[in-house]
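User: Hi! I have a protein structure encoded as tokens and I'd like to know what sequence might fold into it. I'm fairly new to this, so please keep things simple.
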């Protein structure tokens, strides 16, 4: 079976989130609080269903994904990343245009190929542009912080940006998604048990052919 493990620029986002997120109490029904913004569990469930539909439409087997967390956890992490860095960019006057986003997709082989890369990283089609906008903003912030061509300066600048994000736009996750460890990401929490993801959406017509809807975006 073909593995959909991918190694491109966007995959580093998960590591970035792991360094900037923190624990703490959240409102009932919330999956995460990012600064003053709230992501609800219902929103996460909707995006998990959208991701599964997009994976099916692109013939990417869910069991072949090699993600560092469950699908709901990855969807939540990616949604959090998008909101955290877009807000940080807004506060610092750093933006990413639609042209910036399209140029990044072209550099990665075009949208047809890049959409599959994003899906394999737990990003449904309707979240792809928001995610890439935040990724570009974070890259621009790192350049402002001194990132150069060498790995050492990139790591130092990236760490500086992540620390600023943690301070300026703090993140709190609901324990319903597992205990959050800054070094490991989501880990099992015996107090709440394993996270139970939302089931796939049932076909509207049981007699119709089982065909996934086309990817959004």
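Assistant: Happy to help. Inverse folding works backwards from shape to sequence: for each of the 217 positions I chose a residue that suits the local structure. Here it is:
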């Amino acid at each position: 079976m073909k593995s959909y493990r991918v190694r491109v620029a966007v995959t580093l986002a998960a590591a970035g989130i792991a360094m900037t997120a923190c624990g703490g109490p959240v409102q009932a029904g919330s999956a995460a609080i990012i600064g003053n913004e709230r992501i609800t569990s219902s929103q996460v469930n909707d995006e998990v269903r959208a991701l599964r539909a997009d994976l099916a439409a692109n013939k990417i087997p869910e069991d072949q994904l090699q993600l560092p967390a469950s699908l709901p956890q990855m969807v939540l992490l990616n949604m959090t990343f998008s909101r955290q860095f877009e807000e940080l960019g807004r506060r610092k006057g750093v933006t990413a245009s639609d042209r910036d986003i399209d140029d990044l997709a072209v550099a990665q082989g075009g949208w047809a190929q890049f959409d599959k890369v994003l899906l394999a990283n737990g990003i449904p089609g309707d979240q792809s542009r928001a995610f890439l906008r935040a990724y570009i903003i974070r890259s621009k912030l790192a350049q402002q912080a001194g990132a150069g061509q060498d790995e050492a300066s990139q790591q130092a600048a990236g760490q500086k940006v992540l620390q600023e994000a943690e301070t300026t736009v703090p993140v709190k996750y609901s324990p319903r998604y597992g205990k959050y460890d800054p070094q490991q990401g989501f880990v099992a929490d015996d107090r709440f048990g394993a996270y139970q993801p939302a089931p796939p959406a049932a076909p509207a017509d049981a007699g119709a052919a089982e065909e996934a809807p086309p990817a959004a975006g």
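A useful reference point when you look it over: Residues 71-92 form the longest helix (22 residues). Feel free to ask if any position seems puzzling.
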